[in-house]
Amino acid sequence: MALTGIQIYKLLPQTNCKDCGFPTCLAFAMKLAAKQVELSSCPHVNDAAKAQLAEASEPPVRLISVKSNGYDVQAGNEVVLFRHEKTFYHKPGVFLRVRDDESAEVIKAEITRAAGFQVNYVGRDLVLDGFAVEAVTGDVSKFTVVIAAVRDVTHRPIILMSHDPAHISAGLRLLDGEHPLIYGADANNWAAMGDLARQHGAALVVIADTLDGLTDLAEKLKDKGVNDLVLAPTTHHLGTALTLNTQIRRLALKKNFRPLGYPMMTLASHAPDPAYEAMLAAQAIAKYAGFIVLGHFQPEVVYPLLVLRENIYTDPQKPIQVKPGLYEINNPKADDPVLVTTNFSITYFSVANEVEGSGLPAWLLVTDAEGMSVLTAWAAGKFDAERIAKAVKEFGVAEKVSRKRIVIPGHVALLSGELEEELPGWEIRVGPREAVDIPAFMKQVLA
Amino acid sequence: MTVEIPKETWAGSVRTVTFGATASEGGTRTRSLTVGGQKTLPFLHFEHETPHPPLVAIEIKDHRPDDWSPLLLEAWGEAANDPVNWAKAAEAVGADVLVLALSLNGVDGQPTTPEAAVAATQAVLKASGLPLMVFGPGQPEIDNVLLVAVAEATKGERLVLGICEDKNYRTIVATAMANGHLITARSPMDVNLAKQLNILIKDMGLPLDRILMDPTTGALGYGIEYGYSVMERLRLAALQGDAMTQMPMVVTPGFEAWKTKEAKVGQDVPAAWGDWRERGIAWETLTAVTLIESGADIVVLRHPESVARLHQAIQSLMALPELA
Ligand code: SF4
Q1: Which pLDDT does position B59 carry in this prediction?
Q2: How many CB atoms lie within 10 A of CB A424?
Q3: Is residue A318 in a domain?
Q4: Same domain, A38 and A83
Q5: Counting C-beta atoms within 10 Å of the first and last residue's C-beta, which end of chain B has fewer, N or C?
Q6: Could you tell me if the ipTM is greater than 0.85?
Q7: Looking at residue A48, what is its pLDDT?
């Protein structure tokens, strides 16, 4: 947690020698607290104070990177407990777990399916971040065969899962040059795992079932010089996971408790059934996880989970918007209809996707509703007849179409009267309330 | 070492609200239900016990809906043809509460009459002993006519009448007051608008323990983040002691999720969307789970399978953590 100017002042020499360019140590301390100068500008500060200041300037939740060629999955650097207070920054990495009791062929088929998975959400392509290989047979050669099988298919980052240092060591050798994540260090193996993590520059997951256990291991590993840690409370129980994740994040942010100042991992893969796994992963997205491991590749579940992650990690201060304007869908001609909607991107993409999917050409007039959805914008007075008419003029719609026909969303049907006054000579039509009903409307009503 | 757990102590708490009246309380329900009473953020039992679990409600209609996802109609089967069988089926799959959502029109295409609304409500009350909420079709004048008739015909049942909005709350609040019912107050995803509406309703004289609030949510992918944060902020305000935000919250993730394309449509969608049925249920349950984590006291769902999943989640969240 950042120190105040006064706290920093106490660590400075307090000689007011002016070598830093400021008249007093206090003035320098104030600038330092405001992050407007570097500590190195004071040549006289001693090493102990330097260490203390460096420690204090570290983020409360350390940024951890899991890398492979071209990929970098990062978690950490979070600063708030509630997204409305600022925003959540680093979306949790979502990994799919495979086990070494399957043949290389089966694994390759599964990974090929999962690595090829991609869905589009509001113009973004959503994919899985990487894969976790879990040792369950106890046979190191089986473990490495499966790792190699994964690498045959994809270059995305890997989590190596075993409690046995020999397994991890073999895996790390195979992934030489990458920065995989090691799962992990427990009360028995932590020293050997710590050595491996340091040698290979890999981040290490700390495994324990209590805060005390996690703290104890994290401190021992830190003393050993292992700086990049991830915390994994061993629970696959929604209630316990919520409690522990909340306590860990609170200790890190509110108490600047260093031993727990790391991202967390949730092993949804170990849930009792796939439906519970999905709920545990959803909770982990909202409640502070930095890495999430799934045990089943079900596209119909991965899709909503990745969308939920986009939603929760949206910056609440900036509504996601598209540019107001007149958009052409399916090459409209002068006699095709004009559909109007707002510039909230979820609204825009729902409508645009439906019109596109209908195969019918249309003009889509996107008004400036300050990034609000139709109903919200209407309630806030940002989507009314006047604004729609203004957009029609601003974007020269009348010059583009010969048949002056405009369709407003069903939710604002009551605007049609006013809009007729605002746009004399235009035919005002009321469309469906939900985007999903647009194709049928276009085919049946507008055709 | 022993880590000291940081605990928050709050000045305020969520108000306790009880609905549904048993015979001894002047109604016909087999039990009444209570929500609220929390003195912490959701499920943080290490700070304070959570007196009442969130409830799972199932939405049923007065007749077979023609605009619901085919998956829902398939799941309920014949039961969705009439509110009596539907209520029984909902109770059989474990719903805690029933929501009877009245349609704008009857099967004959004519506007729903007050008599028909009363008949449907009474039939549901007879078919199931679960506490009941009755929602109008969502058009102010029609809602008023239907809900007043329903409220008068069911005096003393402690129904929850909905939905009160800033443009239309007086008539519903008045009839709830006169007939011993509760109301739910809906505002469009905004902390201040939620408070304002609660104040207006309180000023009419309805006791605060007869008000639920619905801050509105979006489905996953369709604005859930707004609903989620508004609910978190309302709950934080309640715990900080702001009386006009202390009503328990009811939200309708079933309605929101099942109007999304992902849940509603099975054909001509990308192959990456996977299995339609499971996708629809996941869309609903993951929306609902996320919302109970941000403070929902009642989630209104639509798919029978989602009930068991939500109960499983709630049971786990209500259990004292297994902290070894
Ligand atoms: S250089 Fe260091 S010791 Fe000198 S005035 Fe600046 S802060 Fe103080």
Answers
A1: 98
A2: 8
A3: no
A4: no
A5: N
A6: yes
A7: 86
